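Expect chain and fold; thus:
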Amino acid sequence: MSHRSSLVLCVALLLALTAVGCAPAPAPGPPATPTQPIVIATPTPKPLVVLIDNDEGPITPANFNTFIGYWLTGWIYDPLFARSPDLKPIPALAKKAEQSDDGLTWTITLRDDVKWHDGQPFTAKDVVFSYKFLADAGRAQALSIIDTIEADGDHGVKIKLKSPSPFFLEEALAGFFIMPEHIWKDQKPVSGELNQFQGKIGTGPYKLAEVVPGESYTFEANPDYFRGKPQVDTVIAKIVKDRTQQFNQLRSGSASAVLSSVLPALVGELSTNPDIKLSQGSDFFNYVFYMNASRSPWNDPEVRKAVSLAIDSKSLVDTVLLGQGVPLPASYYHPDLPWATNIPHVFDPEEAKSLLDQAGMRDSDGDGIREFEGKPAQYEILCDANNAVEVRSSELIAGWLKDVGIGAKQRCMDIDTEVTYIWPNFVAVPEPDYDLAIWGWSSGPQFQRGFLRFMTHHDLETVGWANLTGMSDPELDKLEDEYVTNPDPRDRQS
């Protein structure tokens, strides 16, 4: 079996993601006259308003729904190690972590000057509790490799792994937030049963002050934060689902930042606005074209490869993203990342037609649409109706598929409804209810070198939590298992 053809087609990585607006300074007040006493009034700082796409539910390490929720969680909670802008792990709640020569044991030294928002001291027991809880709740697959974890005094932790894990520091110790045991100890570690529990207490720079479901989250600065008091006293994450409305509010000054991907058509306009700054990089949003391998004909890797060959990913970047992105290589990871294997995606519709012929999908009646199992090969492409990139991309993809004899039409809907077909309750299922779909993954997968394994592994309850394709390929599973345990960088790259 061709391992490359077993993978999903990665379309493009959007570079321009976050837009930040700079509010103008307030006008000065009238000067004091000699007959008046000089009174200096301290203005009340205005909240910093940032816009997000969706209601994230409870903002906790066990509950967030999307990468935006992950970011918000990081305002309240801390991990043992944080990630620097260049994706390097740096100490946070941990001072240091040392690995044994055999790669199986990690000794972690924690900070001794950290308190939870309610004043209780942060200790090693919180780390042990959090890692066990998140793993049991199915929210931390990178922690499933832990064999034993125990506290070593109040500020030390010892972890023994089941097998060597070369990515453990970057993807586990720097990947998950720590929760207070005294707040969470009575909760069951099953993600689906935690939907209404907000928790609120963390060690982070902000305290979660108020939640208005469907409208906003309000965060107040933690004056006792161990890295120092935040410069902004209040941050409001306001839910605005319409992307155009988000940027209208940014331009008008009623919001200071947009925490979602910038519409390509707006990049030129926003980049010339001196009050707005766009953030760019290799670790932002990416789009993937999915084929449901739990049903025919998509369970045939040659058909999946044919579809991949039929789609012009460079044209998608140029036409839909207006050049504000790159086609991802066959390895899925952005070509600028050091661990990417830069085999380019190939556009070859003639080869696609040949593969479909070989798979038994032929146009016997000459109407331009092939037949499969005696029926016209007509399928739907699911997409997010509120995402212009997905809507336009699905139109173009439907045209390219028609060129090789596969009928496809759009079925765009709101993202919450789309989730029920592809990833019901954010749980991978063996037989998802769709044929074709455009789906976006956020920043996290690009800095997790083992994420591809989560996207394709057959064990949906543990490793394959992000397998939205219904794929089951034992040979691929074996290769990926070897990849995430091999300590030799050259062997891993091979």
User: Anything to note?
Assistant: The radius of gyration is 25 Å.
